[in-house]
Each structure stands twice: as C-alpha cells, then as structure tokens.
Fold each of these.
Amino acid sequence: MTIAWSEAWSVGNDLIDADHRHLLTLINIFEKVLSTDRPLTDLRAAVDALFDYTQGHFAREEHIMLGLQYAKYDHHKHAHGELIEQLKQATQPIRDLGDVMSPSTADLPREIRDSLSGLLRHWILDHILKEDMQLKPLLAKRPGNFAP
Ligand SMILES: [Fe+2]
Ligand SMILES: [Fe+2]
C-alpha cells in the first residue's frame, strides 16, 4: 500500500513540505521493494537513499527552525537524532543478511518483513504530525518560501 500525500500534513512551508513529500516517496519505494522478491541490494539501496535524504531533511528543517527562533529547537533536534537511531535499529536486520549468498528480500524472516512494512510510515508521519506541525503557527507568519 502506498502512502499518498495529504494536505493535512502540510506545515505551510514549501521546502519542508517538498522534503516530506519526497520522504514519503522514498518510504513507498522501500515498502514496494520489501513486498516483492528482489535482490537485497535493492532494499539496501532504498534504505541508504532514505538515510541520506532524512539526514539532509533534518538539517534543512533545523536551519529553518533556527531562522524562526523556535523555542523548542533543542527538543526537536534531539527528536531528529532519535529518529535516525530508530531507523538504524529497524533496518539493522537488512544489513545483517550480508553474509548470505545472493540474499533476497525473501530471506528476511517474515516477522521482520511484517514489522518493517508500515513501521517507517509511522516513524515519519508521527513525527510530522506531533513535532513538525508545531512549527505551523510560526511558519504562517512567514512567506511560504521562507528559507533563512
Ligand atoms: Fe522534524
Ligand atoms: Fe520534518
């Protein structure tokens, strides 16, 4: 099942919203690879792309938070660090399969596949709705393309 972008997830900033849309696209790609029998390298590539983009997104979002003089900046930045750690832990079984000859997504134990599928969408959507959304009132006072 793919996640389609919802306007309800918009924080009212073009850059952050575009980043969030792209994160959802990357998670959709990850889930698609996970649910089909594909070489594990494809799944690793999907995870790596998600890691890289997530780190870039957090840095861009933190820069905007500084520009807004957001009072909960430290708390939010800390939450980003925890999310990276959670992503690392959740995807560790994928890296652990490196010793199997020509591993495929089908070599991942079913319970791990089941838990990974759906986990990442909650991982990012919960953060967008609980933390990023708190920036909305501050961002509403700035132009949509605000990027300090
Ligand atoms: Fe955030
Ligand atoms: Fe975000």
Note: The domain at 10-139 is CATH 1.20.120.50 (Four Helix Bundle (Hemerythrin (Met), subunit A)).
Amino acid sequence: MATLFDKLKIGNIELTNRMIMAPMTRSRATDEGIQSDSAAEYYAQRTSAGLIITEAVNISPMAKGYVRTPGIFNEEQIVAWRKVADAVHARGGTIFMQFFHTGRIALPDFLPDNAQPVAPSAVKAKGQNYTDAGMKDFVTPREITKEEIKQTVKDFGAAAKNAISAGFDGVELHSASGYIVHQFLSSNANLRTDEYGGSIENRTRFLFEVLDAMTSEVGAERVGVKFSPRMPFNDIEERDAEEVYPFILEKLNDKNLAYVHVADHAGEGWHARLRPIYKGVYFAGASFTKESGEQLLAQGDADAIVYGVKFLANPDLPERFKRGANLNEPDKATFYSPGEKGYTDYPTLGHAAAK
Ligand SMILES: Cc1cc2nc3c(=O)[nH]c(=O)nc-3n(C[C@H](O)[C@H](O)[C@H](O)COP(=O)(O)O)c2cc1C
C-alpha cells in the first residue's frame, strides 16, 4: 500500500515522494515573459516536493493570456529558466515545466500588435479577464486555420525542446482549465466541421498531435499531461465528458508518457472512474488534504497526489505533513501580484521567514 512518502518512478526518474506541487501561475515574470531570479528562489524553496510542476508557460507570443506570465520561445527566456532548473537541482529537486496556449482566453492586450486571439472556433467565452488596466470582457476569437494549427503543434514541440535545453527534467501539457487544448475537446468552444471538430476522435486530434510533437522532441518518458474533466472555468462545456476522457486515457495507454495528471475540481469521482482505465502513472489533484490524499493512495486510485495552494503557502509541506504540523494560510491577495510578498516569504517550520 503506497503512502505519500514512498518513492515513485516516472519515466526514467525516481521521485523521492508522492507529493507533487501543482502548476500555479504566479505572474511574476517581466512583460517580455522573462522569469525573475526570485522565481528560482520560490521553486527552490519547494524542492521537498517529489516533483514540482511549474506555472503554465507560454509556448509562443500568441499563447499569452495573462499578465506577467513567462514564455519559453526565445533565448532570453530559456536563459532565465535555466536559473530555475539549476536552483531546484542544486537542492536535489525534480522539476517539469507546464505549457499552455490560452486560445480564446487571451486578450488583444497581451498579444503582438494587439492581435485578435485564435481558437478552435469564433466563439467568445462568457466572462472577463484581468489586466493591469482592470477587468476586461473576453473577445470573440478568430477561427484558427489549419496552417496555424500545424504551426501551433510545432510550437509545443519546440517549447519542449527548449525546456529540456534549459535543464528541466520534463514537460507537462496543460489540457485543462479552458485553454486551447481543452477548447478543442469541449462541446461549446469547438464548433468546427473539419477533422478537428465534431466526433470525439476529431476533437481529441489536436491533443494527440501536440503530445506527439512534444514526445518526438524530448521522448515520451519526459512528457506528462493534465486534464480537468468537466471543469466549467473559462466557460467550457463538456456535454460528453463521460465518453471523452475514457477515450483519451485508453488511447494514452499506448503512448508511455511519464504520467497523466487529473484535477477533479468538482469532486465528481473522476479518479475512481479514470484510474482503472489508465495503466501508467496517475496523479490525482484538486482539494486534497493529507488524509484524503493518503486515502486515495491507499485505495489504489492514484500513484501520487498533487497539492496546489498548500504548496504555495507551505514551502516545506512534506515536512509539515510528516510532523502533523499546522499549515500556513494562503494569502489570495498576493497569488498574482508582482514582488516577493506572498511569493518567497512564506515561513518554514521553526523559521520566521524562508530565506
Ligand atoms: C494561484 C493559482 C494558479 C494556478 N495556475 C495554474 C496553472 O498555471 N496551470 C494549471 O494547470 N493549474 C493552475 N492552477 C490550478 C492548480 O494546479 C490546482 O489544480 C488547483 O489549485 C486545485 O488544487 P488545490 O486544491 O490543491 O490547490 C492554479 C491554482 C492557483 C491557486
């Protein structure tokens, strides 16, 4: 029976425990998508996680949907990320980089020459996005052309290559939370009538093309993928999620990825349903406590547990779980604000502030 403190092999890497740090956007990069030195410190403080998954990283200039989010598509960005990977490795940690393209969630404010965002179909998401000039309504995107789909697939592959060259141990595709891959999977953002829309096979085509591009660049053993079935965030509807995700996980059995990561945001019992389908390493995430994580591992419904806000607020979360210590409370006001406050200053056990 596995516990949170048992080792776990993913691909060719042995993780020191089964507590994974969730990908979390922190919006502390420059406007040019260059990661700050304090990011190296923030991630290095959390190396007692079995695996760190970085915040979502833009794979191209057209991918950007949020202020101060980092990129991995030019040399300056790669150099900055290398400091993060080196700092984590110097403290014995393991780190994967998560990739996204935000599709229709991007605002022209974030795109080159204030471009209109691209998405599977010209369907505007209901809701608003944050900019430094205040909240703004999402805009109607332009339907992405087949040529642009090909290029975007290549961009994901190139990003994987760049992350490995920056020293990362692996990469994770963000196919969750309503960004472009999830938009293709959905029943409301994807209204295409070509081979990328309609049937489940067609709506999952982009996902598999991207995964193939990433695995052919860096090897399947260094690639993971995250899903959030039926998560309505960013105005996503998935009327046939009950069929889509079993289809995907069944097909992923042949791909030999490092892992599959599923966030069950509404607690709909997805782990018990999907785990038995997938033969490889399965990470379960969203809203876990120490106890509920231990229980899921004991039931065999996951190989590792992903913790988000608890890792954000507790750099030494594994030590705190081991000792049964109290946890720091997360400060929501500083989740996405620039600067060190709420970033590198959460205290570890017995220390006034993590240095
Ligand atoms: C501040 C913040 C930023 C997040 N950014 C991302 C992200 O960049 N990529 C992603 O896949 N999920 C992101 N998430 C979702 C988390 O990865 C995770 O699924 C979620 O927090 C639920 O897990 P938890 O209850 O353990 O925090 C974010 C969550 C938070 C709190």
Note: Residues 104 and 206 are 16 Å apart (CA to CA).
